[in-house]
Design goal:
The complex is a heterodimer.
Chain A lengths: L2 E8 L4 H14 L3 E6 L9 E9 L14 E6 L2 H7 L3 E10 L6 H4 L10 H5 L3 E3 L1 H7 L6 H10 L6 H11 L2 H27 L1
Parallel strand pairs in A: 1-4, 4-5, 5-6
Antiparallel strand pairs in A: 1-3, 2-3
Helix pairs in contact in A: 1-7, 5-6, 6-8
Chain B lengths: L4 E7 H11 L4 E4 L8 H12 L4 E4 L3 H13 L4 E6 H6 L1 H10 L5 E7 L13 H7 L3 E2 L4 H18 L3 E6 H4 L1 E8 L14 H4 L3 H22 L5 E4 L5 E5 L2 H9 L5 E4 L7 H9 L3 E5 L5 H8 L18 H10 L32 H9 L5 E3 L24 H12 L6 E6 H17 L5 E6 L28 H8 L3 E6 L3 H13 L4 E6 L3 H4 L6 E3 L18 E3 L8 E3 L9 H5 L5 E3 L8
Parallel strand pairs in B: 2-3, 2-4, 4-5, 5-7, 6-7, 10-11, 10-12, 13-14, 14-15, 15-17, 16-17
Antiparallel strand pairs in B: 1-8, 9-11, 18-21, 19-20
Helix pairs in contact in B: 1-2, 1-7, 3-5, 7-10, 15-19, 16-17
The chains are: A alpha/beta, B alpha/beta.
């Protein structure tokens, strides 16, 4: 059975790049992998989703995750996280950046941004200040890499595969910072797991 | 020498480019269109990485691109022409007759269909074009097949003396799947165009003779389609057999990995003996395909007993879950996990997030000025179509490339000049199909204003070059098309050229143009901030000076939003998004929006 990772966010946040990184790491690790997304209109600040499907025991057929079959929802924006939780399996896990980006309907006052969006996402999931931490490191746009670091704790892919994927996708001058953010995300997720086990 | 084998994760578009490169394709032409736009840049990248004599161009439209390909093929060069589905409507004229003339070297046409209309104005199924024009059709289901089928398509084109249509869909174009390939390229030198009037001069007498050979040529292609690299039978359990092609195959396998399947790499012409034989060996045969019941109808017309998918699956994108629901409806046992029930209901009431004009987009200024004029606005295809959405609500039609100019002319004629009309069209779209539309309006003494929004980019499809940008696809300098000079040369007397930051000039040009009796053209120039990375110091709204009129919110800039602090909501600018275009500062009635000074504390 493939492991299904749905990545969601706002056009321009690096969802497509994040999906590329996961898929590339899986390929390097010798897994079967497929990835799907939509380009074009969706990139102009609209909702963007990317599907990544990884298998270690047999082929991946459809590049699209069937409804309700996502094992992980990676959200780079809270409202986009809420929009896609229905795709999760009952035991599916959310990893979300706590960033809020108001859609045009909210900016102009014709709709309300959902109240306390992090609450339902944090139930059985992890909400991180990824953009804030990436901003402190000088690359706010690398929030996606930090969140992937957190995801990496749950995927059975060797560290070397992630590192090679990062080196292949990220520009050389930002590579070291991105590696640091990846580790930071990983540490946050491990810390949370340990706390859960201790408690 | 054995060639190097490689294994890569490629999009369907990159895989098509690689297959064409392997086939020794020498000339490629296209007009950008989602989801096909990445094929030509990937083709040039093959040249960068792997070498080879390769030429590729952005043509001004799909008809021109196909004719460039037809000429190169006549000269003996394998040629690739790519377009989105609606592009084939534009190229339909040469497409149909190319089946009569046939080809010199292989000619392959890629049609990238967009089921679900992610980035399109309709979701036509271009497989039907193949049958209508008698052109062989290949339909890959993943990137490996996109590469292999494209390579094969060149051979089939030459063997059958026909162009070959390869139909992709969005999820084949933009999915990344593993491709194993040899780094080797067939090489041939073009021999030059043959003087062969009976084949290439389609006057009626010659066309009738060529039409008579079409059946035999198509049959040759069809024969090739029956071979095992295109028609793949997979044994399985159960009394129901499935005939499928394209991405539907992958979805079917996702749901029912162990059933008998006949996968058709060439859905037209049908490998009739093989489908008939397959259907006869199963109690029931179900056809799985995306959009129109193209295969199902072809099979039924050939008296092969099959069942197609329910009619509600003839529209929209096919997904594993929708297909499972459709199969259930047909009484197919899809097994546990696919019961068709809603796994978790989709959330209701969340604010939608449609695409918007980018912060700093040059089009926003034009629409904010246009908004002051009481006119009917016909729109066109491009980023500026997004201005139709709230809060701008700035245009009232969008039909086809270049259509806004002709529609405006039609409205003005119908209203005998009593209804002022402005046609808004982008720079690239103007060169694609706006030119003949404007000439028509001038010739027929139309009364309209054409507002050309020149952002120096084919922006919506990813910022490609076009005749106005002064550069070609491969980055060579080219003469930059002069919109105003061309309008004058066509006979337009009222022509205005305005820079995007001159809002007063734009306003007065609009007033004069709308009042002018006859056609007017206003060229508004402001580079696409996304493509040209235009950025200045950001602006901020001074809370003490803001009178909460919210006028700045009505320009629909993603960088301006309401704060949610307490009861008093007020507009603020997100300085990380602001590109410093100054439009909000220009329209603020009390000058409460100011450029952030160096050293200002971040509010």
């Amino acid at each position: 059975m493939p492991e299904n990772i749905l990545l969601a966010g706002v056009g321009g946040q690096g969802i497509v790049t994040a999906g590329d990184l996961v898929a590339q790491a899986a390929l390097i690790a010798g897994r079967q992998v497929k990835k799907a997304e939509v380009h074009g209109m969706a990139q102009r600040g609209g909702s963007v989703v990317s599907h990544v499907r990884i298998s270690s025991d047999g082929p991946v057929y459809s590049p699209m995750i069937p409804d309700g079959h996502a094992d992980f929802l990676i959200a780079l924006e809270l409202l986009e996280g809420l929009r896609w939780t229905w795709m999760l399996r009952p035991a599916g896990r959310v990893i979300a950046d706590d960033r809020r980006v108001a859609p045009s309907s909210v900016s102009t006052g014709s709709a309300e941004y959902p109240a306390q969006p992090e609450k339902p996402l944090a139930e059985g999931g992890l909400v991180l200040p990824a953009t804030q931490l990436a901003g402190q490191a000088g690359v706010p746009r690398a929030a996606n890499v930090l969140v992937l670091g957190a995801l990496s704790v749950h995927l059975d892919l060797p560290a070397g595969a992630w590192d090679e994927a990062l080196a292949g996708v990220i520009k050389t001058r930002h590579l070291e910072t991105n590696r640091g953010l990846f580790r930071a995300g990983r540490d946050l997720a491990l810390e949370r797991l340990n706390r859960a086990t201790d408690g | 020498m054995s060639a190097v084998r490689e294994r890569m994760l490629l999009s369907g578009n990159e895989a098509v480019a690689l297959g064409a490169w392997q086939a020794g394709c020498r000339v490629a032409a296209a007009y950008p269109g989602t989801p096909s736009s990445e094929i030509l840049p990937a083709f040039l990248e093959c040249r960068e990485r792997l070498g080879g004599e390769v030429y590729a161009e952005w043509s001004t439209n799909e008809k021109v691109a196909l004719e460039v390909g037809a000429g190169a093929s006549m000269a003996g060069a394998r040629s690739l022409v790519t377009m989105k589905h609606v592009g084939l409507n534009v190229a339909a004229d040469p497409f149909f007759t190319l089946a009569y003339t046939g080809v010199g070297a292989g000619l392959v046409i890629i049609s990238a269909d967009d089921p679900g209309m992610h980035s399109s104005q309709n979701e036509q199924d271009n497989r039907i074009y193949a049958r209508h024009a008698h052109v062989p059709l290949l339909e890959p289901s993943d990137s490996q097949e996109a590469c292999d089928f494209t390579r094969l398509a060149f051979e089939i084109s030459e063997e059958s003396d026909l162009p070959v249509l390869v139909r992709l869909t969005t999820r084949v174009c933009h999915s990344r799947t593993v491709v194993e390939f040899q780094v080797s390229r067939s090489v041939r030198t073009p021999e030059g165009p043959a003087v062969d009037p009976a084949k290439y001069v389609m006057i009626p007498a010659n066309a009738r003779a060529r039409r008579a050979t079409l059946g035999a040529r198509l049959a040759r292609a069809g024969q090739r389609g029956t071979l095992d690299d295109l028609t793949v039978e997979q044994d399985g359990d159960g009394d129901v057999g499935f005939i499928t092609s394209g991405l539907g195959y992958q979805h079917l396998r996702e749901i029912l990995p162990g059933v008998p399947v006949l996968k058709l790499g060439m859905p037209y012409p049908l490998p009739e003996d093989r489908v008939r034989d397959f259907a006869e060996r199963h109690d029931r045969t179900v056809v799985v395909e995306e959009l129109e019941p193209f295969l199902a109808e072809s099979l039924l017309a050939a008296h092969v007993e099959v069942e197609g998918l329910p009619e509600w699956l003839h529209e929209g994108e096919l997904t594993p879950s929708r297909l499972a629901a459709g199969l259930l409806k047909l009484g197919v046992d899809v097994g546990p996990g696919w019961t068709g029930g809603e796994p978790t209901p989709k959330p209701r009431g969340l604010p939608p997030r449609p695409p918007v004009l980018c912060p700093g987009c040059a089009h926003r200024a034009a629409f904010s000025v246009l908004d002051k004029h009481d006119v009917f606005v016909t729109g066109d295809i491009g980023c500026y179509t997004l201005a139709a959405l709230p809060p701008l609500c700035g245009l009232h039609s969008c039909l086809a490339m270049g259509a806004g100019v002709s529609q405006a002319h039609g409205i003005a004629k119908a209203m005998d000049g009593q209804q002022p009309v402005v046609a808004v069209i982008g720079d690239s779209t103007f060169t694609h199909m706006g030119l003949p539309a404007l000439l028509n309006a001038v010739y027929n003494r139309g009364n309209l204003t054409v507002l050309i929004l020149d952002n120096r980019s084919t922006a919506m499809t990813g910022g490609q070059d076009h005749p106005g940008t002064g550069a070609t696809l491969s980055g060579e300098p080219a003469p930059a098309f002069d919109f105003a000079a061309v309008a004058r040369a066509m006979g337009v007397e009222s022509v205005h050229e305005i820079a995007i930051d001159d809002l007063n000039g734009m306003d007065s040009a609009m007033t004069r143009s709308i009042a002018h009796d006859g056609p007017s053209v206003i060229v508004v120039t402001g580079p696409c901030p996304l493509r040209y990375d235009v950025r200045a110091e950001p602006y901020r709204i001074e809370p003490e000076e803001c009178i909460l009129c919210n006028r700045c919110l009505r320009i629909g800039c993603p960088a301006i939003g309401l704060t949610a602090d307490g009861a008093s909501k007020r507009p603020v600018i997100d300085e990380t998004l602001c590109t410093g275009c100054a439009l909000c500062a220009e329209i603020c009635p009390v000058d409460a929006i100011e450029r952030r000074e160096e050293g200002d504390v971040h509010a």
